[in-house]
Amino acid sequence: MWWSDVSLLWKDAAPPAGWKMLPVLNMKLVFNVLLIVVPFILLLHVSYHSTIAPLLASGQDGSRGISALKNLFPSWKKDYIKQVYVRPPPWSDSLPTIYAITPTYYRSVQKADLTRMSNTLLHVANLHWIVVEDSDRKSVLVSRLLEKTGLNYTHLNVHVAEKLNSRGSGQRNLALKWLRDNFRLNDSNAGVVYFADDDNTYSLELFDEMRYTKNVSVWPVAFAGGVRYESCKVDASGKVSGWDVQFAPNRPFAIDMAGFAVSLQLILSKPDVYFRIHGIPGGYQETRFLGDLVTLSDLEPKAANCTEVLVWHTRTQNPTLLKTFGDPNVET
User: Fold this and answer.
1) What whole-number distance in Å separates Cα of residue 210 and Cα of residue 124?
2) What backbone phi and psi angles, to 5 degrees, belong to 25?
3) pLDDT per residue over 178-196, tens digit each?
4) Interaxial angle between packed helices 140-149 and 110-121, expressed in degrees from 0 to 180 and rounded to the nearest 10
5) SS3 64
6) What is the maximum span of the chain, computed from C-alpha positions, in angstroms?
7) Are 221 and 310 a contacting pair, CB within 8 Å?
8) Alpha carbons 207 and 190: distance in angstroms, whole number
9) Active site residue 133
């Protein structure tokens, strides 16, 4: 065999001066070493592809994967933290814009509610968030939060001193004025206006349902009016024929604020239509507003002909807090 010839050559060859003969390798020792080293290499390979590689590839731009790696290696965190909130949602010139109008007011859970809502809106393409504070001035809390979201937004404020039956009407009216001041009826501004309170819960499907509204689109709302859900009734021809509600069922438009969206063109075509804030009983703001815009036959039922719930009228419970505990300068 060839190795026999090699061993003979090595045996007969004179080693260089000062060299000692290398010991003959013990094949059993080599085999034992391989038994230890090879499985260890295979383990590293599997560990990389099951743990590290998915972290690198989990986000389209790598951001989510890199974020996960930052948690594994805290020394990277300092350089990365400035990029955490820079994640604007996609924008396409071919999609109508959704203008989500959100009244907000100061309370213990305001930041929590707005944070949760902004995390939902970050997943919605072509969305412009109009946040209107019930305040004499824009707060640092809301300003800072909006800046960090990466969303397209407009921040407004107006304080309505008098007590109204419908909280947020004055803020919604200011947002409607902003839309009319910034867009013209004859412009090619395809879009839809939605009154999205900051304490509700929204399915992402809802925004796809409303996006192509022609006049006014409607859908069910859960946990409204003292029942599991309120809804519109849809006849065999696909038209809204009435309302399935407990509270004031004879209202022309017996619907919750979260249960409809209005075409931007319709808003612009009727510049005098606002929410009435005087002499309106509680629960009648929506019906008066819609009555000034459309008739029942103009309504467009969405969410599988008003048979699916895609928005929930939730409310965050204000916690009982010890006001003297903790640093009052820490923003919550």
Assistant:
1) 12
2) -65, 140
3) 999 999 998 877 899 999 9
4) 20
5) helix
6) 116
7) no
8) 15
9) no
- What gap in Å lies between CA 51 and CA 136, rounded to an integer? 51
Torsion of CA 11, 12, 18, 21, to 10 degrees: 10
Q: Among positive and negative, which fits the CA dihedral 272, 274, 278, 284?
A: positive
For residue 291, pLDDT beyond 50: yes
Q: What is the distance, to the nearest Å, from the Cα of residue 225 to the centroid of all Cα atoms in its chain?
A: 26
Q: Which of 194, 243, 247 is closest to 217 using CA atoms?
A: 194
* Type and span of the H or E element at 193: strand 191-195
The residue from 286, 300, 308, 331 that is catalytic is 286
Mean pLDDT of the chain: 83
pTM: 0.74
d(CA 221, CA 236): 22
Distance CA 256, CA 305 (A): 17
Please write the tens of the pLDDT for every residue from 6-53: 444 444 545 555 544 444 456 667 667 677 866 667 666 655 555 444
Rounded CA-CA distance 253/286 in Å is: 7
Between 28-42, 96-110, 167-181, 260-274, the lowest mean confidence (pLDDT) is in 28-42
Q: Assign residue 85 a region: left if phi > 0, alpha if psi is -120 to 50, beta otherwise?
A: alpha
Q: 288: which residues sit within 8 A by CB, 6+ positions away?
A: 275, 276, 280
Q: d(Cα 215, Cα 47) in Å, to the nearest integer?
A: 56
Q: Which residue has the tokens 């519109």?
A: 232
Inform me whether the pLDDT recorded for 90 exceeds 90: no
The encoded tokens of residue 323 equal 């006001």
Tell which wins on pLDDT, 82 or 270: 270
The SS3 assignment for 100 reads: strand
**286 burial level (CB within 10 Å; 0-12, 13-18, 19+):** buried
Structure tokens at 303: 């969410």
For the chain, the distance separating the N- and C-terminal CA atoms, rounded to the nearest angstrom, is 81
User: Pairing state of beta strands 127-133 and 152-157?
Assistant: parallel
Contact between residue 195 and residue 129 where contact means Cβ atoms under 8 Å apart? no
Whole-number CA gyration radius for the chain:
32
